[in-house]
Design a protein that fits this description.
Number of strands: 4
Structural class: alpha+beta
Number of helices: 3
Strand content: 5-15%
Low-confidence stretches: none
Shape: globular
Radius of gyration: 17 Å
């Protein structure tokens, strides 16, 4: 067993720990936007894709995507797992297709859709996000 290889039990523990909401990138952005005076709702179930942040007053939603999980073109998003590579390739492709479908559905309903990538948070100025309708 190599240093980057895990048995099924260990891999299962690791995957169980992966959160779909309240991730570090989400919380970081939420705190910054709240400090700017912006108020939002979290994971609204009746909107396509359950957006991470919903600004009903501004008819805007924000998705905070992990680069690996959503197939971003950055260094972290381009990583290819060595184990079960075909599964991960297909999984990430399905995630990207789902993200695109949800964004189109939201736009059709009149929502502005913003995607913030995990790698962007280090340099992102949240005040420049187009949340407020001009």
């Amino acid at each position: 067993m190599g240093t980057d290889t895990f048995n099924k039990k260990k891999r299962s523990e690791i995957m169980r720990a992966v959160k779909s909401r309240d991730t570090k990138p989400e919380i970081t952005l939420r705190k910054q936007l709240f400090a700017l005076g912006l108020r939002y709702r979290l994971n609204v179930k009746d909107l396509p894709g359950k957006p991470d942040l919903v600004f009903p007053r501004h008819k805007t939603v924000v998705f905070v995507h992990g680069c690996f999980w959503h197939g971003h073109h950055c260094k972290r998003g381009n990583r290819q797992p060595k184990q079960n590579a075909e599964y991960w390739k297909d999984k990430i492709a399905r995630n990207k297709a789902r993200d695109k479908k949800n964004a189109k559905a939201l736009e059709k309903l009149g929502w502005r859709v913003i995607t913030v990538w995990e790698c962007e948070l280090k340099t992102l100025d949240p005040a420049k996000l187009p949340i407020k309708q001009d």
